[in-house]
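Predict the assembly for these three chains.
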Amino acid sequence: MKLYSAILRTGIAVGVVLPLAVIFLRWDGAVRPRPPGDDPWRRVELAVFEGGYGIAWHQKTAAEYTAAHAEERAIVNVWGEPRMAEKVKPRILRGDPPSLIMDNRLPLWLMISTGKLLPFDGALDRPAYGSDVPWRDLFLPGTLDTYTSGGKVYAIPTSFGAWACWYDARQFREHGWSVPRTWYEFETLCRQIDAAGIAPIAYQGKYPYYAWFTYISLLQRCGGLALINRINAMEPGAFSDPVALKAAGMLQDLARRYFQRGSLAMSHTESQLQFVNNKAAMIFCGVWLENEQRDTIRPGFELCCFNVPAVEGGKGNPRLFNGLGTEYVFMPTEGRNPDVAADFTRYMVSLEKGPDMGASIGVISPLRGGCPPSAVSPALQSVLHMLDASMVDGTPGIFNVRLAELLLEWQQQVMIPSLAGLLHGTLTPEEFARRLDNGIAHARADPDIIIPEFKPYDPQAFGEPL
Amino acid sequence: MLSLLKSAILYAVLLVWLLAVVMPLLWVFAGSLRSSREFVEDPFGIPWLITGSPYADNPDVDTPWESVVADFRKAWVKSKFSRFFFNSVLVTTLSLVGIISISSMASYVLAKFTFPGSKLVLLYFVSGLMVPAQLVLIPLFFQFTTLSRWGTALLAPFGYEVELHDTFTGLITIYIALSLPFTILVLTGFFKSLPSELREAGIMDGCGEYGVFRHIMLPLSKPGLVTAAIFNFLGIWNEYLFALVFMNSDSHKTLPLGLAAVSIQAQYRTDFGLMFAGLVIVLVPTLLVYIVLQKQLTRGITVGALKG
Amino acid sequence: MKRTWEQTCFIAVFLAPALLLFTVFVAIPGARALLYSLQKWDGLSEPKWVGFSNFVALFRDDLFRIALGHNLFLTVTAGSATILLALFFAAVLHRRVRGSAVFRVAFFFPNVIASVAVALLWLLLYSTTDFGVLNGFLAWMKETVGWPAVSLPIPFTGKPYLVYSVVPMLVWTATGFYMVLFLAAMEGIPESFYEVAELEGVSPFGQFWHITLPLIREVVVVGVVFLVIGSLKLFEAVWIMDNEWPSKETHVMATLLYQKVFSEYNVGYGSAVAVLMFVLVFVATLATLRFSRREALEY
């Protein structure tokens, strides 16, 4: 009898709890209907790192593409998130990635070496949208090389990034300051600014990475493209070259004397806020500065940029500049409908969409002539001007050091801390260079790291002595 | 005279610490009343909301009241704090229900019955106390993939699939499992302290084993259950690492995760108003719950800590 | 005692859910972590067995040594400050200061705030921008008193200083908890002990030293172990304060583990860090059981 009632009670409990549990599991999506194997729609999910650019333009472009390709039943959905990498990395690890990802904080080279990314070459060999030139041939020099391995291109830049020094032309005018052309003039200007009670240079100290690009520019100004080639080739001791040491010393000196006080603890937006409020007169930053600060730039602020000044006695052609592809998109192997994904990328990065992108989100297309000056703000016009001025025989004078993207661990564990040490003054330029060199040697010795072939720049073609 | 001086010093020290605890919180509340513009132009003054804005005659600039309301609305609606809040309540409630029912059952058996290996089972559970959550974090991540695959294989004939990643089910299961060692330890202690004669008397009266548990033992162990519940409540309500790893989509974020995400977002957009509004939205309920429950809370912590 | 079939069923049914959950979601993953730590695996391709080379790499790696060093530094500094302050406040409040209820309630409060919110709050307090309170206060001091004579603002959360700036935050948060813990233990001491001491003219400090402290010794030991375990597992404070992007100068073990696995896909290395954390926590827990053997034997 007792046993009977116990069974009855258990039965009732199970009868109540089980349906509730099933309803919850179903609502939660832990148990859900299997998607039918033959989905008539060819869906593509594009996950965008939501930084300063937002995702509205990408969504609009996806909607256009979807409307235009209704017959092929292609659908492109876009979502964004400032912490994309944190959200997408687990999905890659569990084999359920989006079809297209735009965020280079993922270990792309690891994914390339383990076969987790698909190449874009099929699409690159087709003509670009609105043109009969192969898509591949339209890209600005070097922008496709960052993620090229074994002759295949695994990531497509959606915009062109240039590093420069930004200032407020109005503030300069009011104080009678002028844009410096040489390092000597630059330092003189910093002293003038300091004397006027304004911090000369704002700095994104929480992310020492920002200073890396200033350092790269100084390396080229001092040692020319020949030095950049040696560094890209991962030559032992390249960073400890006396000329490279000089560049590191110049950067350290600049930080010590002219970086805004307290900037070492400022995040990018905090320091940029100091800059747009005219509390600091200049800042080294990428082209997205205007976009990131568009809500805080006050009327009358004339955002302009100038190229890193020439170094007296340096070998480098001072008209060249540090430029690279940014906002790369790539296709995980396990993503759905890679053919649609690649074709959509071809549409998004096209001569047709370039001006629209420039006007809507304030970025420069990575394609040659992809961004007419009339389409963009004065700030971006000053970047395009820098691009025009760099032309040598019709080729844009762009250089870049690929190590940061190639050696993610080196970047994280060696480059960024060493750079922080250099700028905080806790490392001498020699120690800084030794750490970078040792880190490179360590990475070269690691059999798991693939190091793709490297096309050296031709210094002579860019008017530099050998 | 001397003792007066001494107690004055003691009070001074206590008051300094009181200020150190209270001032930052007051500062956050004051900060949430400022507009983003104010943070740059007048960060330490009395909020413009009270003193009046220097831009009062400029129609292009929002009034202080408008910008404060806008900040909170942005946090609650656009940054989805309402959703995070709901998620946190859901996850915490269901986890607590699961933890308390499962642990109390196991603890009761372990405290009041001896059977071959009963000591060993208790030791098995309690040894879990020495496992830091980080140790199981990584394998759990991959195990979820495996379990989801098995589940899908099982349910595929019925047209269903199973996914534990990025679901409340997955996170709640983890929270329940991870809190078992501590909860079982505390509750076993409580059940042991209840006289065994009660059970025998209950059986005599024809309650049955379940009846004794449900109607005699459980009500008597309420202080222990409350202690365990409070401890687990604090842990789960504020948990960050597992939620960070297992909850990827916006609609599944819990409050700590949402706050961290919004703070990053606010930094990209240089939106301090949003950041302070988010902080206040997280702090206010905590403060209210604390004021209501602080007696039980401190007592529970004490009992729990002394037992554990 | 003979068990009926009903009892056997009852035991099985009541134990099964807990056993199942614990085994599947704690015990098995724990064992697998040990296996992972012996593998080289990126989470994407096939794992390779590599013996103890992850651990060898770990100890050769500055990164891990620095992270472990940070954990130990925080344990020693924040830990001792917390225990001393908590003992002091508990002793003061125990001797019935007026308004002790208010102090107790207020001091404990930081403990219930989500650690993410605490870190964010302190990040804002430390800010070097215009609204950073701490720098604002120092600037005001410098202007009025002429002290401290340092260049302001101080980059408290700059990478080289971050680990020091975490200390006050941890003390701020934890002191209330340990105060309540110690206070509860002190309330268990019979009042007559103090009355006798009072009659014999023992000073309040003497009473604390000779009566209170010895009698709550075990609870203090428990507190110390709690603190050690807590500081070994520290994650949110550093993670949030370094904008979710910690690096060599700021890593603690837990952030290193997270970054190795979920950013760099180095599952073996991350698991090795986890296993070492486990070993350290294990040692700390054994120490508690040793020190407070009497309580431990009850169970």
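The CA atoms of residues 11 and 283 of chain A lie 71 Å apart. Chain A has a mean pLDDT of 88.
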